[in-house]
Structures are given as structure tokens and as C-alpha cells.
Amino acid sequence: MSAADRLVEQAETLTALLSVWSSRASTDDRAAARQAAGAAIDLVDALLSDLYSVRADLITETRCWDDLADARADALIAKLREARKQS
């Protein structure tokens, strides 16, 4: 499962838990509502951890991408300079 899929799944679960919690006043099973709130808090903590992990990976990947783009640009500039010297 990809990180994006995991985040979507966690968000869907969080939505369900928050729905249970938000209906706490109109339910007979208030213990279940309270358990849902606790589970939602734990899930938010897990989501935050996963989001920071995805963020760190994305930063690393974009820096590598930028380094490759810089290397391609440097090679092109060097090639153009060389061509200019020869003409």
C-alpha cells in the first residue's frame, strides 16, 4: 500500500470515528461514542506522523529531482559554450 493510499484510508476511518463522536448526544451507546473519540485522537496522532514522513520523503525526492535538473542544465550550458568556442 502506498503512503497516499494509507493516508486516504486513515482519513476515511477518521471521518467515520468523528461521525460517531459527533452523534454522541443522540445515541444510547455513549461509551462507544467516547471510544470513537479516543480512537480518533490516536488516529490523528498516527496521521500526523505519517504526514511528516511523507513530507520528509517528498523533500528528499524533490531535492534529488532538482539536482538532476541542475546537472542537465549544466551539461547543456557546457555543450553550448563549447559549440560557441568552435564557431
Shape: rod-shaped
User: How far do the termini sit from each other?
Assistant: 55 Å
Largest beta-sheet details: none
Number of domains: 1
**Helix-strand pattern:** HH
Mean pLDDT comes to 95
Percent of sequence in beta strands: under 5%
Question: How many extended strands?
Answer: 0
Radius of gyration: 25 Å
Poorly predicted ranges: none
Structural class: mainly alpha
Helix content: over 70%
Number of helices: 2
Summary keywords:
rod-shaped; mainly alpha; 89% helix; 87 residues
What does this structure look like?
With 87 residues, this protein is an all-alpha fold. It has one domain (3-86). The chain is 89% helix and 0% strand. The chain is built from 2 helices and no strands. The radius of gyration is 25 Å and the shape is rod-shaped.
